[in-house]
Specification:
Layout lengths: L10 E10 L2 E11 L4 E5 L6 H8 L7 E6 L8 H5 L2 E4 L11 H12 L6 H11 L15 H13 L5 E5 L7 H17 L3 E6 L2 H7 L2 E6 L2 E6 L1 H8 L3 E6 L4 H11 L4 E3 L4 E5 L6 H10 L4 E7 L3 H10 L15 E2 L2
Parallel strand pairs: 3-7, 3-8, 5-6, 6-7, 9-14
Antiparallel strand pairs: 1-2, 1-4, 8-9, 10-12, 10-13, 11-12
Length: 332
């Protein structure tokens, strides 16, 4: 895989189609990723995220269209392309019978990592993922978060130029997922690698990605930086702190006037999304007129969750319904 010229994309899918029987998985997909970019592929299950990763890895061939990684075809130029690529599938890729260090030694043999300085390299990789103190412990005794971080370490050991990560936190509990996201954030910050991250976790994409691509039925319906998409398609919301005795009444009023789902934490704080900036003053005025005691009002910036829900409300996310033809929405 060659290094692209300045300004050239490293990953390219152009007019790509892919079916599985009668099911259209990828439909005229156009996508480019620049070197060093961290791109999140968002969408519900079946939107085409995993198929896109498999096409880039050369595990699937397109029926029509072009797939290029560093100018090479992942299918016909497979060895040279995959030699610079690390792929983390949804399933774990570590052996529970071996220690963490033995897993990385085995990976080094498989990927042809030079033996010179290998011990130092393994120690550094384990340290990066906060596993140095577990290096000689059998993987079967590690937590799910540790095993997933070890899977990432195994993929990273050959120092690939491209990382393809398929929902790396989907099967983890909240604590383990946070540990893995912290490790991914370190990788994203170093800018030495191009990362494509498949996820349906909007907060995860917002935290880690330079750019977000929302897929629906194998097509791009939104593409842009998280903040751009949030402000282009999300309205944000408002957080209120009211007197404890007024929570029930305030919730009732918000449900009636905001036409947005209201979250409540039971401690006098209410949070509602889908309320634009201009709607906040009349909303507060209505509450005070009804005798609600308000201690604090804070505007909430739009999030990627707002974007996703807005696209869904406009019919651009069909939630798997066949026959829908979503249009492409690009942030300004």
């Amino acid at each position: 895989m060659k290094t692209p010229e300045l300004g050239e994309p490293l990953l390219v899918l152009a007019g790509v189609h892919k079916r599985f029987g009668n099911v259209v998985a990828i439909d005229a997909l156009d996508l480019e990723v620049q070197p060093g970019e961290v791109v999140g592929l968002l969408g519900h299950n079946g939107a085409g995220k995993t198929t896109t990763v498999r096409l880039l890895a050369g595990l699937l061939a397109p029926e029509r269209g072009t797939v290029r990684v560093g100018g090479g075809d992942p299918v016909t130029d497979g060895p040279s392309v995959r030699g610079q690529m690390g792929v983390l599938p949804a399933a774990l890729v570590v052996d529970a019978r071996l220690t963490a260090r033995q897993n990385l030694r085995f990976a080094a043999d498989v990927f042809g990592v030079p033996s010179e300085g290998l011990d130092t390299r393994i120690d550094a990789t384990l340290a990066l993922f906060e596993l140095g103190d577990r290096a000689d412990q059998k993987v079967g005794g590690l937590s799910s978060g540790m095993r997933q971080r070890l899977s990432l370490a195994r993929v990273l050991l050959p120092d690939p130029q491209v990382l393809l990560l398929d929902e790396p936190t989907s099967a983890l509990d909240p604590v383990a997922a946070r540990q893995v996201r912290r490790a991914l954030a370190k990788l994203a910050q170093d800018r030495r690698r191009t990362i494509v991250l498949c996820t349906h976790d909007l907060a995860e994409a917002e935290l880690l990605c330079d750019r977000v691509v929302v897929l629906e039925q194998g097509r791009v319906v939104a593409d842009g930086r998280p903040v751009e998409l949030a402000h282009a398609h999300g309205t944000g919301g408002v957080q209120l702190e009211v007197a404890d005795a007024d929570v029930a009444r305030a919730t009732e009023l918000l449900d009636a006037v905001s036409e947005a789902e209201v979250d409540r934490d039971g401690a006098g704080r209410l949070r509602t999304r889908g309320v634009g900036r201009e709607a906040i003053p009349p909303l507060v005025e209505r509450l005070t007129q009804e005798g609600i005691t308000i201690y604090e009002v804070r505007r909430l910036d739009p999030s990627l969750e707002d974007v996703y829900l807005a696209l869904h409300a406009r019919g651009q996310l069909a939630s798997g319904r066949p026959g829908a033809g979503p249009s492409r929405v690009v942030a300004p």
